[in-house]
Amino acid sequence: MAYILNVLRWYLSLGAKFYRVVPLMTSAIVVLTIVAQIASLLSFFLPLKIIILLGSDGMPRYFPAAFSQLDRDLLIAWLSGTTFGFFLLSLLAEKLIAKATEVAAGELLGKSQKMVLFENQEDVAAKAYQRYSSALAAGVFIPLALFALGWFYPSMAGLIAGYSVFVFVVFMASYRLSERFREYLDQKLTSALGLAAKLGFFLVFAYLVMEFIFFSPPGFIIAIISILASRQIFGRATALVSGLHGLAQQRPRLDGLFFHGKVLVSQQLNPGKKNLWALLQPETRAGWLMRVLEEAGVQPVGTGQLQVQWLDSSKPNMPHLLVYGADMPDQRLLIKVFDVNRKSPAQHEAMLATEGLEGVPIPSLILVTEVDRFACHVYRLPPGQLLKVPQAKRKLPALEKRFVTIHLPPRLVNRYLRSRPLLVDRLSAEVLERLYVACSSRQDTLHVAELINRLAELHLHLKALPLVLMNPNMVRSVWQADADQSLLALNWDKWSLDPLGAGWPLPGKPFARLVEHLAGEPDRRLNTADSRKVRLSALAYGLEDFNNRQLFNDALDVLPEILDMLNALQDNAIEE
C-alpha cells in the first residue's frame, strides 16, 4: 500500500510539472481528447439511428418529436452527413493531439536543460506526456459521462459506478493478500483490466435486458446511449489505469528527463517491485532456495547449513549460484536464475540439457522451474572447481575434441534446422557487402566481390561437412572435477549446430592437432572429412565472427585465405 501511495504522489508531482511548464498545451490536449471521445461516441451512435430509420416505414415514436416534422429522406441524409462530420472531427482532434504532444514534449525537454540521457529520449518523453494527458482526459471524461448518464438513467450510472468500485476493491485486496495475483497484475495488468471491462459491459447489457423484461425500461434511445456510454467508460477506465501503470514503469527515466534534482541511474530499481537482484540477496534467497531444492528432490538441510557461493560467469542477468551443504559432501548444485528478458536463452539451454546426449560435457539437469517470474535451472555437479581463464584456455582443446564425436540424433538436428540458421544461411551476400565500407584498396574490393560471386560455391563445400555441436565462449565456464579431472562446460545458452571446423582456431598448430585427431576417429563422417573443407569452415566462421563484431579489417585479412582454399578445392575437382 505504501508503494501505491508513493506512486500516486509521484503522478501528482509529474502532473504539476507538466502544468507548470506547458499549462496551455496540457489543457488543450485534455479538451481535444474529450472532444475526440465524444465525437467517436456520436459517430457510432448516429449510424444506429440511420439504420432504424431505413428499417421503418415512418418515423419511430421514440425519436425526438422535432424529427417528425422533417422529411424522412432528408433526415437520413442529414444524419449521414453529421456522422461523417463527427468522424472527421475525431480524426482532426487526434491529429491536433499528436502535434500538440510533440511540441509540448520538446518544450519540456528544453526546459529541463539536461544532456542526452539515452537513445530515443524525445520519443520516450512524447509518449509519456501523451500517456499522462490521455489518462488525465480519461479521468475527466469518466465522471462527466457518469453524471450525464445519471441525469437520464440514474440506476445505470449507479450500476457502472458500483461495479467499478467493486473491481477496484477486489483488485486491491487480492493484490495485498495474494502473491500470485500480485505477480499476475505486474505482468498482465492490461489483460486483467480488459477482462474486467468486458464483464462490466455484459453486466450492463444483462441489467438492461432485465429492465425491459421485468421492470420499467428507459426510452429506446436512452438504452442505446447507455450501452455505448458504458463501453466508452469502461474503455477509458482501462486506458486510465494502464496509462498510469505504464508511466510508473518508466519512472526512473522520466525522473531523469523532467526533474532537475534527479539523475538517471542505469541500474535504478522500482521500489516495492520484485527484481532479480532483490531475489538474490542473502536474506531473500534462503527461502526460495529451500523450496527449489525440495522440488528438485534434494533432501533439504537447515538454512544455516546451506552454503551458497557466487560463480563468475560473464553472463549478464544470468547469475550462477553454487549450492552445497554438510549432508551433500559428494555433490554440488549449480542454480542458474534467468532474468525475465533471458527466457529464450534459458529455453535454448534446457532443450539441449534434456536431450540426454551421450558425451556432451554438460552438467546433469535435474530441475527446470520458475522462481517468481524468473526461469531457474538446477544442475548437479561433481565436487570440483571453476577454472580460471588461463587454466581454461589450456583445457579447451580437450573439450573441443569431445564435441566432434558427439552423435546428434536426427530429431534434434531437424528441430534445430526448423528454428535456427546454419553458418551457410548466416553468410549471405547482404552481410558480406558491409565489408565494402572498410576496403582501402582495389585489391580488397576485388576480394569482397569475388567471394560474393563464389558464395554458392562456398555454401556447397560447407554443406558437404557433417554438422557438429558447438558451444562458443566457454572460457569462463569450464568446471573441473576433483576426482577424475573431467571437464564440464557450465554455459550452453548459445550452443549451435554448424559444419565441422566452425569455431576451431584459425589455421595453425591447434588446428592441425584437431585435424590429426579426426583421422583417428572411427566415425567415417569424421575420418574421411576433407581437411581443406574443414579449414574452409573454420575460416568462414572466423569471417562471420569478425563481421558481427565489426572488425572489418580482420575480416578482410581472412578473405585471401578463403579464396585460396576455394581455388585449391576447385583445382582438385578439375583434376578428379
From TrEMBL:
Bilayer-crossing regions: 21-54, 74-93, 135-153, 159-177
Name of the protein: Uncharacterized protein
Swiss-Prot/TrEMBL keywords: Membrane, Transmembrane, Transmembrane helix
Domain of life: Bacteria
